[in-house]
Amino acid sequence: MSEVCGTISGVELINTALSVTSTVAALLTVWLAFLALGKAKETVLEAKTARLEAEQAAKEAAADRRTEAAERHDAAREEAADRRQAAADRREAERDRRRRRLERVGELVEDLFWMAETGRQGFIVPADKWMARRNLLGHAIVGLHDQLPETASLLDCANVGQAFGPASRARLEIERVLAALSRDQDSDHQD
Question: What is the pTM assigned to this prediction?
Answer without folding.
Answer: 0.61
